[in-house]
Amino acid sequence: MPDVTIPCKWRDLPSYVATPSSSGPWPGVVVIHDAGGPKPDTRNHADWLAREGFLAAAPDLFHWGGTIRCLRQIARDFSERKGRSYDEIEAVRLWLTQQEGCSGKIGIIGFCIGGEASR
Question: Quick one: pLDDT at residue 117?
Fold first, then answer.
């Protein structure tokens, strides 16, 4: 199930999902990309987490606009600790909890801008 669309109140959120090869239950991880947007390294991180026994979902937080526009929105959301970015990350977190094989325990890992999201 590598590429999925996760429902969100703003707009469906394209995401990459990596599933462990071992039997569940697995904890989940939301993998937040860096300021460059989702790239192969984001998928590689999700794949690595799956190999370690985590159900990993990497959403594209830039899916609705250009890089600069999205970065500005994310910066506003992080400073206010609410908004579209938080809603999208929460949608992914909730989606993970509803997946067969997920233990319901969810973490967030981030790189660059994603490190702010996980505070």
Answer: 45
